[in-house]
Q: What sequence folds into this?
């Protein structure tokens, strides 16, 4: 009898610790994947971290999947090939409009907003030995790595540099691979679009001397006028190379969910991520911006009902019904 009471008490305690996550699991998937990007970039490190956190807290096996980045993630989630993913506002808008290059003409409306992640700054890195210290220093025909094909960087950075008068040879690849090519002299510049600090840049700093190149005020103004980005400052403390804050531009990132996933599952997953920011910051410093008040940075995607309910209940979000999927 005593052992039975102890077992019952243990079960009650476990339920209390698990809270709402232990209830209302009707229709929950047996496992899940999070579409991220290439290894060496912020999407992969951040995505793998929150996938593991959600898996541990909810008791549902899950993990990160290496992908081509925001455009491919929209396609994977829309098609139901991944439960969750990570995207950026620009690629999300293009995907919903049917102009995603992965599937031209397909309006990817089954990928719903889940939670705000962080801003993606656009930054340029070159070896110090190259003598490139400004955008204007980039020589005509420079070999520039723009990240994986179809990524946020690959979609927008070439257009930005063209707007600034830079002529280049376009190269693609994972961030770690491009960082290695830069170090080996196979590239002249890498144009990064990723949450800071970018793991590949931090690794380069350890191995060699680099220049992290900021935009001039005029260059920043040109980009702000022509592209869906906002002004951003990379703090000097982000990298050992930086001696002062660096001027940049950025685009917001959001986690996305298959719109057909159960409301209770997505609500519980959002709660795991958004209820304890310190845990997220331990995963990646970019998560300092993974805060409930940034719900309003989603201006293009329908919200998953479970996610919308969490932000309405916990962040005072005013999300209109016509921005919530199925409402």
A:
């Amino acid at each position: 009898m005593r052992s039975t009471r102890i077992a019952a008490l243990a079960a009650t305690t476990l339920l209390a610790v698990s809270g709402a996550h232990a209830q209302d699991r009707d229709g929950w998937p047996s496992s899940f994947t999070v579409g991220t990007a290439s290894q060496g970039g912020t999407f992969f490190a951040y995505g793998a971290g929150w996938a593991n956190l959600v898996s541990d807290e909810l008791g549902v096996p899950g993990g990160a999947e290496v992908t081509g980045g925001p455009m491919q993630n929209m396609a994977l989630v829309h098609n139901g090939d991944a439960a969750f993913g990570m995207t950026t506002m620009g690629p999300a808008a293009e995907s919903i409009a049917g102009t995603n290059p992965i599937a031209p003409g397909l309006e990817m409306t089954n990928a719903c907003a889940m939670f705000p992640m962080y801003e993606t700054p656009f930054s340029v890195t070159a070896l110090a030995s190259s003598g490139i210290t400004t955008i204007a220093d980039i020589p005509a025909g420079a070999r520039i790595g723009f990240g994986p094909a179809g990524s946020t960087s690959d979609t927008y950075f070439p257009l930005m540099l063209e707007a600034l008068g830079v002529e280049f040879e376009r190269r693609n690849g994972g961030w770690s691979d491009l960082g290695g090519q830069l170090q080996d002299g196979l590239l002249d510049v890498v144009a990064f679009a990723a949450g800071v600090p970018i793991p590949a840049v931090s690794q380069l700093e350890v191995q060699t001397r680099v220049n992290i190149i900021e935009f001039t005020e005029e260059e920043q103004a040109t980009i702000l006028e022509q592209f869906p980005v906002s002004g951003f400052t990379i703090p000097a403390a982000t990298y050992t190379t930086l001696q002062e804050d660096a001027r940049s531009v950025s685009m917001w990132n959001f986690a996305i969910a298959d719109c057909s996933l159960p409301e209770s599952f997505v609500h519980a997953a959002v709660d795991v991520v958004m209820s304890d920011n310190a845990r997220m910051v331990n995963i990646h410093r970019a998560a300092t911006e993974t805060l409930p008040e940034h719900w309003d940075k989603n201006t293009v995607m329908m919200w998953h009902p479970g996610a919308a309910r969490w932000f309405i209940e916990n962040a005072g979000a005013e999300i209109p019904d016509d921005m919530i999927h199925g409402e």
